[in-house]
Amino acid sequence: MLSKVHYSILLGALSASIAAQAQDYLPVLQYHHVSASSPKSTSVTPEQFTEQMDYLKSAGFQVVDLRSALDDLKANKPLPEKAVAISFDDAYRSIYQAGFPILKERNFPFTVFINTEPVERKSRSFLTWEQMKEMEQSGGVFANHTISHPYMLRKEKGESDEAWLSRMTNEVDTVEGLLEKNLGHSPKMLAYPYGESNSQIRTMMKERGIMAFGQQSGVVSADSDFENLPRFPASGAYAKLSTLKTKLNAKPMPLLSEKTGGDYATDQPVSISLTFKEGKYRLKDLTCYVAGQGKAKLDWVSDTEVTATAEKPFSVGRGRINCTMPDNSGKHYYWYSNVWIRSSPDQGYVSEKS
């Protein structure tokens, strides 16, 4: 029999071994259609999806339930080594027809963010509640993507700020009610249509205990904003396995703080200020890319603080800056992304609110 001392040593060694295998961050993959005939920009073909899922299996990735993993990260509980989560937006029927068999065969859990208007009117291009119930039996989870997939920050003509917020509240609460009514539960997760939110919308999520996703790329960690979480798109231009491998091995940028100047871009070039945590990082290898413009200009304010500035203003629409930095091993990249909205007056966006 082991003595208490030997048992304690063995337990300590086992704990250390488990800790070494644990992961304190989570890459989340985002898909829409699984089809060769739907719009290429938001689609992955069944062959591409099979290739990606086979890679996850062969490379030893642990596909985890999204909500459970988010809860663990928030509580600073370790995830399995090489943990990754799979998600879909928009409740397209191709997910059931082409994606689900591939996931079921590999026993991979997944989450689908559903916009309920086409589901409720029984559109043949979208999932049915019965199909969702079937998918739930094999790891499927169904979450909120609003009723009608609106631009959540745009007001209708003549609409007051109060009426706009009431309409957005209804977009969220109605879907929560339909999930409860038809499936018996809600995971309390939401994906913002087009990735757009502001402080009022994010406060609404927090008040309801809903974790929400934007469309900036990156990995989730305990330091993330759980009302504006990142994901990696894995469809269309991002479906290539070679680039996906880099993202699957990404780590969260080790930031102490960030300053983005708000949710909206103006007629001036955007800039972000990033302050890094204490530690030995390859800061000289930090690179920031501006969508459609190339590299951002980097100004080091101090040894641990940098400002990245775009060369030109963004065009109307959504623009982003992605920053990456190799870790000390060179096997992983730290990853950070921020998205801004450049609106035009005719779009009716609500004003920036603090």
TrEMBL record:
Could you confirm whether the keyword Ribosomal protein appears in this record? Answer: no
PROSITE patterns recorded? NODB
Keywords for this protein: Signal
Give the GO molecular function terms: hydrolase activity, acting on carbon-nitrogen (but not peptide) bonds
- Annotated NodB homology domain ranges read 82-284
Tell me which Gene3D superfamilies the record gives. Glycoside hydrolase/deacetylase (3.20.20.370)
Q: Where in the cell is it found?
A: Secreted
One GO CC annotation: extracellular region
UniProt superkingdom: Bacteria
Give the record's GO biological process terms.
carbohydrate metabolic process
InterPro entries noted in UniProt: Glyco_hydro/deAcase_b/a-brl (IPR011330), NODB_dom (IPR002509), Polysacch_Deacetylase (IPR051398)
The stretch of residues making up the signal peptide is 1-22
Family annotation (Pfam families): Polysacc_deac_1
Q: What is this protein called?
A: Polysaccharide deacetylase
Q: Which organism is it from?
A: Marinomonas polaris DSM 16579
